[in-house]
Amino acid sequence: MRARRELPHPPPAETVGGWRRLFVLGALGVGAAIVLGRAFQLEVIDQDFLAAEGSKRFIRNVTIPAHRGAILDRRGEPLALSAPVETLWAVPQALLAKPQYVDAVARMIGRQPAEFRKFLQARIDRKFVYISDPMSPSEAKRVVALGAPGVFSDPSYARYYPAGEVAAQVVGFTGRDGNGLEGIERAQEAQLAGKEGSRRVIRDRSGNIVEDNLEYKPAQSGEDVQLTIDLRIQYLAYRELKEAVVKHDAKGGTIVIVDSATGDILAMASQPGYNPNNPAERKPPGTRNRAVTDLYEPGSTAKPLLVSQALELGVFQPTSTIDTAPGWFKVGSLTVRDEHDDGVMSLARILAKSSNVGAAKIGLTLGAEAVWSGLQRFGIAEPLYLSFPGEVNSVVRNYSEWGQIATATASYGYGWSTNALHEVRAYSAIANDGLMPHLRLLKNAAPVPPQRAISARTAREVRRMLETVVQPGGSATRAAVQGYDVAGKTGTARKLSDNGTYDSSRHEALFVGMVPAEQPRLVGMVIIDEPGDGRYYGGLAAAPVFARVMQGAARLLQISPDGAISPDLPAPSAPSSGTPMMVKVNARAGQ
Fold first, then answer.
1. CA pair distance 278, 286, nearest whole angstrom
2. Which residues act catalytically here (predicted)?
3. What is the mean pLDDT of the segment spanning 233-240?
4. Which entry of 82, 156, 260, 300 is annotated as an active-site residue?
5. Which of 19, 251, 491, 545 has the least C-beta neighbours within 10 A?
6. Are residues 436 and 466 in the same domain?
7. Short-list 60, 35, 87, 273, CA closest to 173
8. Structural domain containing residue 153
9. Is pTM, for the whole model, over 0.70?
């Protein structure tokens, strides 16, 4: 029998597990040694090399500019536009390392080579510096095409104002950062601005992009803003106002034209003005929109509001008369005077001759509270809610603070202050059969229903009275518009001096009127501030401006005339077209 061979016994499990542990531990040890060795090499041996390589590259967030929305007139004509531009920048150290390029770049960007080299040397430690104002993309491309090391361009937008000075105080302007600083540019900043985008890139030490779009966020364009302004009428208003201010050697002037039914502001101009395309001109007083910011005592232009209140309350009738003889009368210590003794006068005659005595007697008959509430019914003290920068409200003391003198003077427009927009709105109620519209400057603004100020009957009666002001024998014959009946009122207000007394040498000449008188479509106001030629009456300085602007505006809007118009009457001219100057926003050279 064959002997059974003994099989070898397997090694104990503890022995196998021990070898495996030793193997794993050994492998981990070798790996750790490799990692530590590499770390030692990087941190100690190659530290200088890696630091040098890292300094050659840096991550930069590049801003993607948002296209700013346009500002348009009611017919879609551009008043403010953004055009693409490029601004050159350089890495000073990289550019100076190649001196042969410095002079060439300097000449192409209009700088003196020596000055440019000195400019770069003073900023050699900066990563980059802007070296030009914004320029057209084609100009920037030619400079970059030189191949100068470290010279690149950033895209942005520059603001252009095609209408220039014509609509400057309405439109306003943007600052160097592209944000609105004045006018609609400021008031509608949130809608116009849009949102900038960004992209993350890696550049080398010369500024070259070596890796692009690590992160990308697109820009969002701003929205357009359309105004109620009609550029054609705006131009007429601007031209005639400027001519009158120069002619009368005046300190300044204001004009506002409104659609009496809708409250749409069709034109609004001030003098002195400025060209928003020229940053050097963007300073007061030219930037001031006087129709919004300036308060004045309305003088005799307030008398139709008083007469309207007298008729509404039934205290006076259209046929009522008042004795103004002998052309003056005393109210306490105040002497109220007229230019002439016109004796017994009707309400219409009081307006036509602009009698202070007649107005004061009406006001004293009504009493302080009634005179005050008459101003309130025309919204004189209400905010206009135009959201326009610098908007001021009228200043009218409560009637409880009035005495006899304050009541008398308030009746002919002294002792309280308002602005051109408030007064134009009040006259729009007279033009619109008693319904007073809310003024509107933004075409897409939600319409607000008009409020009843006076009855339609009172409005028509007062309009008929105001027609006599412009007819022969009235104080505003120079406000007549060929082919159209005009209703309106002159005003000549003395201005307060620094010591609180009225200065007999400083006046404001005013005229407010409407066309056509029977069914008015347009209401306008003209103010000539401090005429220096002695012709300071509203009928002499302000009324002719109204007439010329309304003549052109009525034809442009094809308003049916009341009578014949001479075929020789020239058509209203339009603003000349030309290449607008570039607004140099984001001008960062030298930073």
1. 12
2. 300 (acyl-ester intermediate)
3. 98
4. 300
5. 19
6. yes
7. 273
8. 61-92+104-226
9. yes
